[in-house]
Known about the structure:
Layout: E1 55-60, E2 66-72, E3 78-84, E4 92-97, E5 104-105, E6 113-118, E7 125-129, E8 149-150, E9 156-160, E10 168-169, E11 177-182, E12 189-193, E13 200-204, E14 212-213, E15 221-226, E16 232-237, H1 243-253, E17 256-257, E18 263-268, E19 275-276, E20 284-289, E21 295-300, E22 311-316, E23 322-324, E24 332-337, E25 343-348, E26 359-365
Amino acid sequence: MTLGGKFMRDINTVASSWLLVATLCAGAAGAIAAEPTNSPASPTEELRYPGEKHLTHLRQLTFGGQNAEAYFSFDGKELIFQSTRDDLKCDAIFRMDADGKNVRQVSSGKGVTTCSFIAPDDQAIIYASTHLAGDQCPPKPDYSQGYVWPLYEGYDIFRADPEGGNRVRLTDTPGYDAEGVYSPKGDKIIFTSARTGDLELFMMNPDGSEVEQLTDQPGYDGGAFFSRDGQWIVWRASRPEGKALADYQSLLKQGLIRPSQLEIFIMNLEERKPIQLTDNGAANFGPYWHPDGKHIIFSSNMHNPKGRNFDLFLINVDTREIEQITHHPDFDGFPMFSHDGKKLVFASNRNGKVEGETNVFMVDWRW
């Protein structure tokens, strides 16, 4: 769902950051970029910070540019991610082996893309793209109203072959459609859409049919992921009231959203009653279930809600106990556990060659 460069000097001011990009999945790409080398590093503990006890054999998979939202294939052998690199002016979708090798672009390079995911059977990929609205990258938003994310009307969700061929458009309603992910069985796709005049969660079949609305409260609902058993979802949401609601609705009419306060919610897909997990007034985003169904990892600036230091945190769904996982003094975000729970992939500013560079990292997870 949408971030880049050096991550927010102040969440209410303009910054070159992973929150500064085109969509709202877990994030998108920013502006500062170095020449990628695509040279995978050997496992090293030098990339870890004190206190990161759950992370072992930390290795860097991308080198230079803006790289984020890396998500595992179901078997854990590959990753799909978005990147601004080489001559690209905005994000395109790439695949690579889980060790960082065999990097290749699987989107057309036209428009801007975000929020990619691999089908559980590895026979298809999905991602959001604006290429039907134009070949060029959409313009950056106007920050005269403060720190905002753009919601490009040209975004639709597309399914393609594993290497990007035979693209099929799955959504065709006016306005923003993005942030799509497959269920573990591959029988459903959950996504965010502005089709009702608000930003709500929807679910559809893999061919785009039988669309049903899952949320209906005023505010942004997005960045959803299924639990390993497919029975629950987790997502981030805003629930503005009073002047904050008026501001949200005014920005939404302009295709913008202010992301300074987002809380983590879960919902059982049978009962469909949202349950709020966090209540800290910070920017909490990028939640993902651990396969045990008892823990959720997410990124947050809860220790400094006005600041740019985002770390990964783990919350126990039953007790609400929160544990800080990363301690890098800048940006860590977009976490995803492998489906066996043995590995964790995330994006970070750590070890960047230039300020604001964001790369993909892999660790072995230990309790």
